[in-house]
Amino acid sequence: MMPHAGDFADPPTKARYRWSGWLLWILWFSFGAAALAGTWALTKSGDLLVQATASLAAGDPKTALGLAREVESESGIRTKPEAFYVQALAALELGDLTLVVTAAETMAARGGRDWFGLRDFLLGNAAFRSGERSEAEATLIEADPTALDLAIEQVRRAKEAWSDATTSRDDWPAARRNLARANAKLAILEFKRDEAEAARKTKKEQEQRKRKGPTETEEREAGMLGKQRLDARALAALLQKIEDNEAQKREIRTAQRTSKQRGVERDW
User: Fold this and answer.
1) What is the pTM of this model?
2) How far apart are CA 224 and CA 208, in angstroms?
3) The pLDDT of residue 87
């Protein structure tokens, strides 16, 4: 049966312990100490895996990871894929995304095709978490301008991995929900990237204008505007000149009227 992201190893039972005890005695009499040592190692690894799974379910990923690694150390090449599955889940909780990828790939290599879908699911989780980290870095002061591009690339990888996971089963609700999250996150990241690029472009143009100074057109317009503007003293002088001219014209007209009136004969 194919495992999924919510599966854990079954807990041990009394029947299992009774069966393990009888097996140890049979192997002792049949094959000697070498067979006993090998069976004891397998039994111990199984118990460690159960403990690792229980620790993970109890919210203690650090202990779960340590126990799962001990299982790998005890079993070597015979380590079951479930042990690497627990490692991947614990590493994801601890934020060790490199280990998530390594454990997921090893899990699939040990388990075969039935575990490929779960591997893709875990790889999608790791990629999406990386995208969130890059998105957070983009908000820092003096942030790398490529941080949002990197976040978009990582979320796209997560989307592809989750899409591959959905094809491994007739229906996988968790993978479908994650695909929807990836689409929503991509829309947000692309909007943020476009806004950041527009802001950088505007800032760059402003800095270029400051370095170059005013353009020829701007200087000509400023000169024309300056010619059109008069300071208060120049304006007062112009108004006084206009007033003096008007006064002089009035005096001339008055003198002309007086001269004409003197030359006219009177009846009295």
Assistant:
1) 0.63
2) 25
3) 96
**CB atoms < 10 A from the CB of 185, how many?**
21
What is the per-residue pLDDT across 57-67, written as a single tens digit (0 to 9) for each? Answer: 999 999 999 99
Section 117-139 average pLDDT: 95
* Cβ atoms of 42 and 23 closer than 8 Å: no
Higher pLDDT, 79 or 25: 79
